[in-house]
Protein 1
Amino acid sequence: MSLTFWKPGTAGPGSTLDRATESEGNVVQSAPNHSAYSIQAQRERLPIAKHREKLMYCVEMYGVTIVVGQTGCGKTTQLPQYLFECGWAADGHVIACTQPRRVAATSVAGRVASEIGCSLGEEVGYTIRFEDVSDKERTRIRYMTDGMLFRETLLDPLLSRYSVIMIDEAHERSLYTDLLLGVLKKHVNLLCSAIRRKRPSLRLIVSSATLDATSFLEYFTSGTSPEEATVVSLEGRMYPVEVAYLQEPTPDYVRKAAEVAWNINLEHGRGDILIFLTGREEIDRCLEELAELLPTLPRGASRLTLLALHAGLTTEEQLRVFEPAEQGFRKVIVATNIAEASVTIDGVKFVIDSGFVKIRTYNPTTFLASLSTVPVSLASATQRAGRAGRTSSGICYRLYPASTFASLSRTIPPEITRTDMTTPILQLKSLGIDDLMKFEWVSAPPAESVLRALEGLVSAGMISDNGRLTVVGEQVAECPVEVGVARMLFSSKEFKCGEEILTIAAMTSVQDIFVIPDGGAQGAIAELERRKFTAEEGDHLTLLNAYNAFKRYGQSSSWCKSHALSFRAMSRAVSIRSQLKKYMVRFGLPIESCEGDAKRLRQCLILHVHPTSVLFTRKARTGWVIFHELEETKKTQIRILTEIEPDWYVFKYSIANDDFHSFRIQLQCRLLDHGHKYQSRHNGATR
Ligand SMILES: Nc1ncnc2c1ncn2[C@@H]1O[C@H](COP(=O)(O)OP(=O)(O)OP(=O)(O)O)[C@@H](O)[C@H]1O
């Protein structure tokens, strides 16, 4: 295996995009190691520093400032600090910076806290779902996921504690970024009149490295005065990133990624490696390929620390990739696109881009969501390359030919056009946006998605016939969980099982409770441990058993280890449960126990989570589903339809009997291993 395989490798690799950047002549080329400078000196050397005055002037003068600047120039870490230094956080006001992903919000907050010299959660904090590391009184700069800020608009539609809201990585067009922009556009319209008088300080910044600034400018100036918005382009990037392409497309980019990483380790000096693949299975496979090569590592070569980074990991597990490699080791981080934007992993010098991403699409006619692997957009490819060259010069290896890069589309369709609109519409209604036709969408969702969502909400009693939210709808909208889970909490009152349903709701909000290694003796032992918790009545009760045992045995990490449970996941469930409990108390929902009456519990579950467990073999295409919550257990065969996200599949099955006559059910289910039954996650049923 040799890198001569690379097409250019030496002379003139790179797309026009990357070349243009490098030839701007404002790259810090001969910089010594980034960490050789003090943090303050590092800040001053960032390309954005030259634009500080202009940026602050624009924020002062305009309601909306659209900022476009190269990856790594300093938008995410510096802009909120400039605002802070210029007094935008005076009088108890807060500067918010949203991120589409929690790993970006948490890691950037950590970096900015250390730049400012405070502990995380003091002047600088972050807020992601079920995790708030910020202080109501002290925090002045708050990094948060876009979903969390949107949720806050439900409680305070004027977002009155914020002086500036920065919507970062707007090019990603995540669902909640779009919804926030829509809601804030309403503010901008109003800014010209009433609210500006009341709240003269509210400002909006929309930023990205790869934003179509003109369309955002048009969006924000339509219906208002042109003086309301402006664009600032930041020139310059920190360090050059060389780009290399494959000569021919590869039939197996996972294997190729492992091969290239291996070669880099043999042929290049220091620098960690970041690989972009599409999902967890691919990440595991790539790590396995590399692990198999490890015994052949020549003497003298750096040893490898193999790390995964994907959304299924807990925050702590995700943050592990930011820890420096030990002496003599090189980190190889295999990630999904969650590491694509706003993330700086100090030491990463080499990026390997598979050129693919998994996106979720939704079919409102069949209520089916599915995941499909598609080529990345130009914006994503640029962001990925930008992960090298942040703390030193770097190389990005694209596992596709240069001609493919040229044919990539600029962006992928916004998430709002390919998602189930049930929860967002409930939330918009809760914000008082009753006429969805008049809402100024950045991109409108398909009419059918909106209609199906409205139908579902009306039939669930959350929206009344006149289109207004009912009291229950209002309360469900406020709960920080999916509509289905929130409904389950509300019905626990009827079945007198709030205590247990609260636990089940918390446990189903956490991923990977059981730690079962793939195969081998360890896997078999762990599997036996898991069976100790297994309840005949279904997997929700298995989760309940595991939680109760965890509490009974003192929430101990060693106890978790010996019972194949993840201590982190279990602790997170405890914290989520206590947060959900506050909502139940607020809504006057009794937290009473069903006292072991599993039937009552199952009756509550059956209403909102379909009564199924699945008997399955990993990677098999067919299996059995068991209806536990019916009076008698019934079995029927099922068939995989599609993968909706890594390890989650949609199955279809039909059953003909008195209870379910020719009932077609869509079941989303996670396959674990070894033919063991596992819980269903979120189900819809159609006749
Ligand atoms: N954790 C960190 N460790 C070391 N340096 C860092 C860290 N985070 C940021 N930096 C430095 O600050 C620079 C600016 O990072 P920042 O995230 O603000 O850029 P950005 O313009 O928002 O980029 P992007 O568009 O890629 O998010 C990086 O290029 C890097 O030099």
Protein 2
Amino acid sequence: MAIIEVDDLRKTYGAKVAVDGISLAVDEGEIFGILGPNGAGKTTTVECVAGLRTPDAGTIKVAGRNPKDCRDLLGVQLQESELPERIRVREAIELFSSFYPDPVDWTERLGLAEHREAEFGKLSGGQKQRLNVALALVGNPRVAILDELTTGLDPQARRDTWSIVEDVRTAGVTILLVTHFMEEAERLCDRVAVVNAGRIVALDTPSGLVSRVDGEQRVRFRPSEPLALDLLRGLHEVTDVQDDGGQLTVTGGGNLLHAVTSLLARRQIVALELRVDQVSLDDAYVALTGGHRAQDR
Ligand SMILES: Nc1ncnc2c1ncn2[C@@H]1O[C@H](COP(=O)(O)OP(=O)(O)OP(=O)(O)O)[C@@H](O)[C@H]1O
């Protein structure tokens, strides 16, 4: 059942159209990703869902209610949420807890227990983000909105943060996640809306997005024995064969790898240095957004 329903959302800033008719529905318990290039309208969309901005047109419902009446349901971690440098972890948790009737302390579960007396300014990037997640969850929300949670983190801290997001979902929280990272979307999200210039250009599971792109596959190998290239060209899965000094690159579709390896096996030829390149979510994203590559910032 959908817990977030966005229907034909529009938002402009002066002459700038930031969101141009976005509709989506997020099911309870889902991790739903919003992916797109800079300025695509992602933050504006989630800020409207969070009740922090007023749409110009369209409707948004969270658990059937207007987002502005959903303080008890929503936990929000925003893109550049910065706390004062000197505030201690414990003090920040206490301050945020005071806003809610039934606060929940996530510091233990998020590995912050030993940093409770540390000042915000002295925390590492990963610890700051864990604190931001703890603060977003303090009100025991049914929906957490996480905007570029892992931007600026090193790869290990990013992975640690992903496990935390999975733990939060396991605890029953629905997550709306804005991200620039393909790997993050692929690892975490049940479904992803790819946004470009204020519109959704595709909405699907990560593997569904990949399969939409009519991507070619490439199989590269060095045959252990000489092989007539026309045999490969005769396979209906194959569209092209290149020989680069004995290193063959076979391009095609369908079950290309199986077709090529079966042919080799019949001739008792071994594929040495075998490599397979397949369409990735990155390729799908580039195709869907017309060439904007998601950034690693
Ligand atoms: N307060 C504002 N006033 C004027 N224009 C704004 C404002 N906030 C956002 N914009 C513009 O609206 C467009 C959408 O911005 P938004 O922040 O929603 O995009 P985004 O997809 O989240 O981008 P990013 O990945 O860079 O955070 C951008 O062109 C941005 O410059």
